[in-house]
Amino acid sequence: MTVEEYCGTFDHSILQFTFSLVEEVKTNIQEKKLFYHGQIHRYIQKQIDLFFISSQLNRALTSVYKHEMYTTVMFRLKPILKEMQLFRCV
Fold first, then answer.
1. 21, 7, 10: which is closest to 70 by C-alpha?
2. pLDDT of 7-65, one tens digit each?
3. What is each CA distance from 68 to 34, 62, 64, 83, in whole angstroms?
4. Maximum Cα–Cα distance across the chain
5. What pLDDT is attached to residue 40?
6. 38, part of any domain
7. Three-class SS string for the chain?
8. Which end of the chain is more exposed for a tag (fewer CB within 10 A), N or C?
């Protein structure tokens, strides 16, 4: 049994998108394309919002999915955010 069969195609696509977003943000931080904490948060939020534009889910379920995706991405990026010296607006 594969992960796609276990989760379903939509949930599997969410998982794939989440981990590809983590890798994309990591490379953007390392290449100094993203260098502010706020900039990173806005970029992640925008990418997640764009992912769900075409979904036919109700608002409550979409909100839960967005929150869980954002939490997962930030959890995965936490060591890199500590390691890299990023600017922070006060």
1. 21
2. 677 888 899 999 999 999 999 999 989 888 889 999 999 999 999 998 888 899 999 99
3. 22, 10, 6, 24
4. 49
5. 93
6. yes
7. CCHHHHHCHHHHHHHHHHHHHHHHHHHHHHCCCCCEHHHHHHHHHHHHHHHCCCCCCCHHHHHHHHHHHHHHHHHHHHHHHHHCCCECCC
8. C
Specify the number of domains making up the chain. 1
For 71, the token pair is 């939490």
Domain carrying residue 22: 3-83
**Residue 67 within any structural domain of the chain:** yes
Cα torsion 5, 61, 78, 37: sign: positive
Phi, psi of 85 (to 5 degrees): -90, 110
90 pLDDT higher than 90: no
pLDDT in the model for residue 83: 85
pTM of the model: 0.86
Rounded Cα distance, 52 and 62, in Å: 7
